[in-house]
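TL;DR need structure tokens for one chain.
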Amino acid sequence: MALVDSEAAFEQRLNEVVVDAPSKAALLANGIRTFSALAFSAGTPQSPPSDDTFRTFADSVLPAGYNMATYSALRRLHFEAATFVVAQLKQKVTGEGEEGRQKLPTIEKQARLADQKRRLTGIDIEGEIQPSYALIDAVNGMIETSSVL
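>> reply
TL;DR here they are.
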């Protein structure tokens, strides 16, 4: 899983950029939970939406009566999402990066660990038992490439 598909990374950035709580909730309620979902929700990463198209998109996902600050924050988030998608595709095509592997965003690793601790009651995943970030990235690389490294 890359940054563009991480729900935890998207939610963290959404909280940093969009300050209006109802707008955040509206985006998530409309199924926009990742950068890739947002990048393709209005236009495509290679051809950004026109002002009218983006305004129509904003009107359909944001709560009625949103202000210009919320609109511009959504526009910024959309631009970042499209940029992340293009960067990820370029990296996959050129094979750049550490041995061609994508590293999971730190927030995604933390969210997965919290989920495991919640699901696996009775197992204390702390200290020596907690997997390192390098191990998590290695396993994620094996899953993405369908091969043992």
